[in-house]
Description:
Radius of gyration: 29 Å
Oligomer: single chain
Helix content: under 10%
Structural class: mainly beta
Largest sheet: 7 strands, mixed
Amino acid sequence: MPIGIAGAVVLAGVGVHAAFAAPSADAVIAEVYGGGGNSGATFTNDFVELANAGAAPVDLSTYSVQYLPGAPSPTSKWQATPLTGSLAGGGRFLVQEGAGTGGTTPLPAPDASGAINMSGTTGTVALVTGADPLTCLTAADCAADPRVKDLVGYGTALVHEGSGPAAGASNSDSVTRGATLADTDDNAADFTAGAPTPQNSGGGTPTQPPTTPPTTPPPTGTEAKIHDIQGDTRNSPFAGKAVTGATGIVTGVRAYGSSQGFWVQDPNPDADPRTSEGIFVFTGSTSPAVAVGDSVSVAGTVSQYYPGGAAAGGQAVTEITKPTVTKLSSGNAVPAPVVLDDKSVPDAFVPSAGGGSIEDLPLRPDEYSLDLYASLEGMNVRIDDTRVVGASDPYSELWVTVKPKQNPTKRGGTLYTGYDQPNSGRLMVQSLIPTATSPFPAANVGDTLRGTTTGPLDYNQFAGTYALQARTLGTVKSGGLEPEVTGKASSDQATVATYNVENLAPGNPQSKFDALAQGLVHNLRSPDIVALEEIQDNNGATDDGTVAADQTLTKLTDAIVAAGGPRYQWREIDPVNDKDGGEPGGNIRSVFLFNPQRVGFTDIAGGGSTTPVGITGTGDGTSLTASPGRIAPTDQAWNTSRKPLVGQFTFRGKKLFVIANHFDSKGGDQGIDSHLQPPVRSSEVQRVRQAIVEHDFVKQLETADKHADVVVLGDLNDYQFSPAVQSLTENGTVLTDLVDTLPAKERYSYVYEGNSQVLDHILVSPDLGKHVEYDVVHINSEFANQTSDHDPQIIRVRP
Length: 799
């Protein structure tokens, strides 16, 4: 279920008055200067100045400033500088960025610092909720991203607000919003060029550098112990305030990336189990000048940092930012770890707040695992001999369970059985050990992480979940898991399979095509019909209007022949460019492959990307009006989502109607460990509408022919117990979801965050369900070496 990053650029935003969010009534971008340190520049650094047009302060700890080149290429990425602190009503806030070799005057003391090297003449700057880089590369896409609070394109920037970018930027001139801070969402109208005038939150303006170093004043703030800072809820009572005297022993150091820092733990705990004795000290892109075992005293500003922004729903991490660190001694023993195991971790996962926030609820670490982890945030913890329930991924992460008896699958995972059963024993494991010293282990589901794994408990900002940051990492013992091979069909059985091939495009390495072919030929035994999801167009994510996918399909079918399989034919309908969602520019779609030596495809003209397929005739004369066809492709149910592909096949003279699906993704849903409980599943609304539209089509087909043989299959992006799937099946009267016919421990096709769950389905009409054998073939989701993140499924059926 991957959500692709932004791909190539169609210059859709040029000359278009993009409808950005309503003009900001408080925080706005006031000035942008990208000429710092360039030839002819006075100032040594680039900068972005924010201003508050309102009277109330704005907490900036949930925001970042981001930059995109003026003419982004398909591979361009936004660069982000996370912010901390507050923007006072009517105040200013200075964000210092990259330095050049020129210039003579430093900026006034910045309120936040980054290392982005901006262009002096053209670029786009955005004020963004959260620190995750934006993925939009056009004005229209950025306008549609709710995280963008304000955006300024300058020079000749293609991404801008309104009629055009702000004009006049140069090595010597910035672009500045007027004194009234008017925000009409038109950069050309709101900004003018002139000499840069950087101003920080204290009203400071630039001065010539002093000839002698100034004396560093002692840190100011309230003296507080770490447990005082953490408090007995998820919110720190010191949030936004300056503190001093936070003492403890360094238990872990993160010295890479843009979120560097270290964890420190007070070896002298208080008597309250709800208050953590550990905390993360954020040093940004600067490597911490401490080592494990150092005794330190820390002063700084307390921040409640929401990875991805508060609106994303994740837990906040209590951090000390802008730290002043005093080393008191070295070589001290690290505080003894708290052991996480079946006894110490509660069975219940998280309290409910009726959809509201649980942040200010007193923690109950003896009742809920998520409360336990919050009470241990930043502290040294330990796990021993844990079973792997989520395979190692390319980001050097794996998942284990500390509760081995909790919903085990037949092959060693942890089964996700319902919204109220998120499995409290799951825990992510990452490593603080340099990979050059000890590469991260490759582990499959069912393996064991043997021995002791110890380190601080963190909240992973990208996954949105608690993670043990391993200072010492156990070793992997194989559980002997092997890819499955489906059973052999008899000659009078038709075999129909579904396989999400994860953004397959001609530019993928040949090894991916070969591995997919091996899976289809050997593990699935060359199905007669295959519904493929996520077939991309001929140039993949390049967004230039290409929609044909014949090159992708030729390369795949050639690989299947080379693997010893049949020469498959295919049927599909090219989508309208950029209208089916998925990776921008990829134009993913569902496709039928079929073996003409075993089954026939009934070609009926009239199908098209926007033409709805219908049903004609009754009884044995029931037929589609187009084959292949699409179900209600212009219905709003399918906005920016894949349209179902319908085909009419024959096997031994009998008709078989097959519907290939790829429902709307779960992107935008709040995670199961959201601070809002229960979390909001916002994407579910569209999938339910999709299910109803398809249900009505299937019911119409079954009404025309009560013995119609119908197979509905594909990536429905939802669980067997979800409202969407229940709407599609009508409690089994219209369709039978075959995953429900498996033993409970085998009901999964996808592993996400250590939960073995169902996203892919094969459903059949009641008449067909009497003659079907069904198999989920586990060849991907449980393995570190994956060809796709989905497992294929197959049925053997006598129509």
